[in-house]
Amino acid sequence: MSKVEDFLTKEEEEQIVEAIRVAETNTSGEIRVHIEKSTSKVHYDRALEVFHDLRMDETKLQNGVLFYFAVEDKNFVICGDKGINDLVANDFWDCTKDIMANHFKSGNFKQGIVDGILNAGQQLKKYFPSTEDDTNELSNEISKG
Q1: Residue 91 near residue 70, CB atoms below 8 Å
Q2: 89-124 in b/e burial notation, b at 16+ Cβ within 10 A?
Q3: SS3 46
Q4: Is the pTM of this model over 0.90?
C-alpha cells in the first residue's frame, strides 16, 4: 500500500465515521482518526503532534482520543488527553489495541478500526458518560496527512 488513499475505500471511511458517531452517543469523549503514509518521528510523538494540530487538547473535559495510523510503517497509536489519562490506569488502551491488532493481522483494517472505536466509546462511557447538554466538539471526519 503506497498511498494513504488506498488504505481504506470511501465506503469503509464512511463506516468508520459512523462508528465514531455511534461511540460518541455513549460518552462525552471525542474520538478522531488520523491516517498518514509514514513518519520519520517516533510514532507516539507524531500522534501527540497530530493530536495538538487537530486541537483535540481543547475539549472542555480534556477527553479527546486519537487513533493515529502510519500506513506504510504498519504502526498505530491510541492517545488520550489529560482528562482521560488522569483517571485511568496506564494500560487502559491495551484491550482496544489488542482488538484492533487481531483484525489487522488478518488484513481487516476497517473492522479493526471500527471495533477499536466502538470499544473506546464503551470504555470512555465509564468515566465520561454522555450528558443531555453534550455537544460534538470535534469533527468525526477522518483526517489525513
Answers
A1: no
A2: eeebbeebbebbeebbeeeebbbbbbbbbbbbbebb
A3: helix
A4: yes
pLDDT computed for residue 126 by the predictor: 94
- How far does the chain reach from its first CA to its final CA, in angstroms? 15
- What is the spatial distance between Cα 21 and Cα 80, in angstroms, rounded to a whole number? 18
How big is the CA angle at 82 (ends 17 and 87), to the nearest 5 degrees? 100
CA dihedral sign, ordered 55, 57, 63, 66: positive
- Please report the DSSP string for 50-72 in residue order: HHHHTTGGGSTTS-EEEEEEETT
Name the DSSP letter for residue 137.
Answer: -
pLDDT digits (tens, 9 = 90+) for 14-37: 999 999 999 999 899 999 999 999
Q: DSSP secondary-structure letter at 142?
A: P
